[in-house]
Amino acid sequence: MRIILLGAPGTGKGTQGKFISEEYNIPKISTGDMLRESITLETKMSQFIQSQIKKGKLVSDKIVCDLIKNRIKKKDCSNGFLLDGFPRSIEQAYYLSESKITVDYVLNFVMSHEKILDRISGRRIHPQSGRIYHIKFNPPKINNIDDITGDSLVLREDDKTETIKNRLKEYEKITYPLKKYYLNQALKEKLQFLEIDAADSLINIKNKIKSILKNNR
Ligand code: AP5
């Protein structure tokens, strides 16, 4: 099973992606996580990536398409995969289709910008595992501590209000047109395009996704 999670920053793609990955035993491939990981390498390329992320700008299509190309060649993707945050531009979607990488589901997470700011401002993450918390909606058992490892949780560098505003602008300008693109693809291919009300509770969204994917165990 191959799934794309589309949607603006902070709509819960990473949170539900982790659940889908565990429930259906397919790897979650997050270009955001991969890019943040690559920053630690301290090369010229990683400095560029870091500055784009810090500004709330998208990284170039070439860089992310290369990351995806190498990642989905790996053995764990033979049974399927979940793309979290890719594609994010029409060019990236063309890359998938030109490479004959088909997908079964595109789940589009939809929520107002006001709610997005609420969600992102309370987010805390455990970078090593990708576990995502929220101080109000999905708190850890002990304040600011990862439930499994006991490590301290951190704030993402690009979760400052000014950066979030830029990320939302980039989304509207570059990523939003993918909705129309995939609605059209759904008319031509086997692919299913479904909208998820991202303002709903964690459990309701989980159940909705389960019912969408129930025939794919
Ligand atoms: P990336 O890491 O992909 O970030 P994003 O898409 O902006 O999405 P987020 O991770 O902010 O949010 P999310 O939807 O995963 O929400 P989450 O589950 O955390 O990208 C970062 C940067 O990398 C980009 O800005 C860009 O520079 C670059 N990049 C990445 N991919 C790229 C690409 N393909 N091309 C070019 N550049 C790329 O949830 C948010 C919060 O809400 C959490 O605290 C969570 O606990 C809480 N929450 C989730 N669901 C619920 C719920 N139902 N109810 C209550 N709280 C909830």
Automatic annotation (TrEMBL):
| EC numbers for this chain | 2.7.4.3
Q: Which UniProt keywords apply?
A: ATP-binding, Cytoplasm, Kinase, Nucleotide biosynthesis, Nucleotide-binding, Transferase
**Entries under CDD domains matching the protein:** ADK (cd01428)
* Gene Ontology CC entries for this record: cytoplasm
User: What is one Pfam family matched by this protein?
Assistant: ADK
Specify the Adenylate kinase active site lid domain's residue ranges. 123-158
Q: Which GO terms describe its biological process?
A: AMP salvage
Q: Which residues bind ATP?
A: G10, T11, G12, K13, G14, T15, R123, I132, Y133, D200
- Enumerate the residue ranges of region (NMP): 30-59
**Reaction(s) this enzyme catalyzes, per UniProt:** AMP + ATP = 2 ADP
Which residues does the record give as AMP binding sites? T31, R36, K57, L58, V59, G85, F86, P87, R88, Q92, R156, R167
Q: Which pathway does the protein contribute to?
A: Purine metabolism; AMP biosynthesis via salvage pathway; AMP from ADP: step 1/1
Report whether Transferase shows up as a keyword of the record.
Answer: yes
Q: Which residues form a coiled coil?
A: none
Stretches for region LID: 122-159
UniProt key word Kinase: yes
Query: What's a Gene Ontology MF term here?
Result: AMP kinase activity
> Which subcellular locations apply to this protein?
Cytoplasm
Q: Note the subunit structure.
A: Monomer.
Q: Could you give the domain comment from the record?
A: Consists of three domains, a large central CORE domain and two small peripheral domains, NMPbind and LID, which undergo movements during catalysis. The LID domain closes over the site of phosphoryl transfer upon ATP binding. Assembling and dissambling the active center during each catalytic cycle provides an effective means to prevent ATP hydrolysis.
Among HAMAP family, the record links this protein to:
Adenylate_kinase_Adk
The family classification in the record reads:
Belongs to the adenylate kinase family.
Please state what the protein is called.
Adenylate kinase
Where does this protein come from, organism-wise? Buchnera aphidicola
Give the taxonomic lineage as stored in the record. Bacteria, Pseudomonadati, Pseudomonadota, Gammaproteobacteria, Enterobacterales
Q: Which gene encodes it?
A: adk
